[in-house]
Amino acid sequence: MTTDKTIDLPDGMGTVTPHLVCDGGKEAIAFYEKAFGATRLMSPVEGPDGKIMHAGLTINGSSVYLNDEFCEMGAVGPKKIGGTPVTIHLTVGDADAWARRAIEAGATEIMPVADQFWGDRYGMIEDPFGHRWSLATPGEKQLSQEEIMANMEKAMGQNCAPGEES
Asked: Where do the VOC domain residues begin and end (predicted)?
């Protein structure tokens, strides 16, 4: 699909921006600053009760919005609904360092960073608010689809005992 209008975006904004609902918006901003080196696009907008109505951050050059939970309006975080089906993917220069920093800031390791069959160094964490983040450092060599498929078959085969099917 093409558009007929050029969009002039503010610095740090992308055309697709995840909007996270967090139980504890102020704490979430502090976590993302510490864990991912987030910077604020603007001062957070607080409601009369002090809850974050809207905040804009940049993480590794991409924009992320967030707000506090407002259950009465259907804005609930992943922990209230039993988890999230969404993973936010970050491509970074050193996935190991990013994962370590996030874990030190309070994230939980879901999948340790390791070399993967598709060529990336990749792992996954869950932040204290229930949002999942994958962290990937691309391999030095771009693998072909054939190489990825061969590596996948080899990797998946290693998970089975002799005589078992994958």
From this structure: 12-138
3-state secondary structure of 65: strand
Distance CA 61, CA 77 (A): 24
pLDDT tens per residue across all 166 residues of the chain: 555 567 777 776 777 899 999 999 999 999 999 999 999 998 999 999 999 999 999 999 999 999 999 999 999 999 999 999 999 999 999 999 999 999 999 999 999 999 999 999 999 999 999 999 999 999 988 888 999 899 899 988 865 455 555 4
106-144 burial: b if 16+ Cβ within 10 Å, else e: ebeeeeebeebbbbbbbbbbbbbbbbbbbbbbeeeeeee
For the chain, the 3-state helix, strand and coil shares in percent, each to the nearest 5, are 25, 30, 45
In this prediction the pTM is 0.85
Query: Which backbone phi and psi does 32 adopt, to 5 degrees?
Result: -65, -30
DSSP per residue over 120-152, as a string? -EEEEEE-TTS-EEEEEE--SSPPPHHHHHHHH
> In CATH terms, is domain 19-157 a member of 3.60.15.10?
no
What are the residue ranges spanned by the domains of the chain?
19-157
